[in-house]
């Protein structure tokens, strides 16, 4: 029963993350002005969530991208 609740909570968290939709890596690069390599490194390191579509295509949840950017916000 407890494991079922953990699985349900994890599924709900994943659904919430992609609920706003996703953007392609190409669009994220274009919109943010970052290099593709920066985003790919963040995805590989696990700090930027992504959805694997097929064997090669990846899309980034909008909410995950906003969170990743907010975590790197520098205020002086």
Please give the share of residues in helix: 55-70%
Q: Low-confidence parts lasting 5 or more residues at pLDDT below 50?
A: none
Report the radius of gyration as a whole number of Å: 14 Å
Query: How many H/I helices?
Result: 4
End-to-end separation: 48 Å
Provide the residue-averaged pLDDT.
90
Tell me the count of domains. Answer: 1
How much strand content do the residues show?
5-15%
Order of helices and strands: HEHHEEH
Strands of the widest sheet, in order across it, are 1-3-2
Largest beta-sheet details: 3 strands, antiparallel
Structure, described:
A hairpin with a 3-residue loop joins strand 2 (51-53) and strand 3 (57-61). Strands 1-3-2 form a 3-stranded antiparallel sheet. With 76 residues, the chain is of the alpha+beta class. It is globular and about 45 Å long. The protein has helices at 2-18, 25-32, 36-45, 62-71, and strands at residues 22-24, 51-53, 57-61. The longest helix is centred in the first third of the chain and has 17 residues, at 2-18. It has one domain (2-71).
